[in-house]
Amino acid sequence: MPRTDMSRARAIAGEIAADERAAKARDAACERMARKGREIRPATPEGRLALAYALKSLRDARDWLRKADCPKAMEAVQAAIKSTEGAERHMAHRLARTTGEG
Q1: How many Å apart are CA 31 and CA 78, to the nearest integer?
Q2: Would the N or C end of the chain have less CB density within 10 A of its end CB?
Q3: Cα gap 89→102, rounded to integer Å
Q4: Claim to verify: residue 52 and residue 29 sit in the same structural domain
């Protein structure tokens, strides 16, 4: 059964109203963030050093797994290395924002 023009208009009006509500919610969230500023957890040079040691250990583990011919385990460790490298980049940013280092 085809929709009538009136029901199409109601459906479109409902979609527009939903979009407007979503836009208002986004705007309110942006205003809240702007008022209080973006807070980040402070980083320490000791944390950065611990992260560097963890990354070194993961790379050593990957090398040993390669020598042991364990490809699945090596893939898992490689994924952990990539994640840790991302954490290292974030740590550098946090250090720069909280202590001026980085």
Answers
A1: 40
A2: N
A3: 10
A4: no
Residue with tokens 């954490």: 87
Other CB atoms within 10 Å distance of the CB of residue 1: 3
Same domain for 28 and 53, yes or no, is no
Q: What is the DSSP string of 11-64?
A: HHHHHHHHHHHHHHHHHHHHHHHHHH--------HHHHHHHHHHHHHHHHHHHH
pLDDT tens, position by position, 41-80: 778 888 899 999 999 999 999 999 999 999 999 999 999 9
CA-to-CA distance for 29 and 36, rounded, in angstroms? 11
The tokens of 84 are what? 């840790």
**Structural domain of 11:** 1-39
Task: Clarify whether residues 29 and 74 are in a common domain.
Answer: no
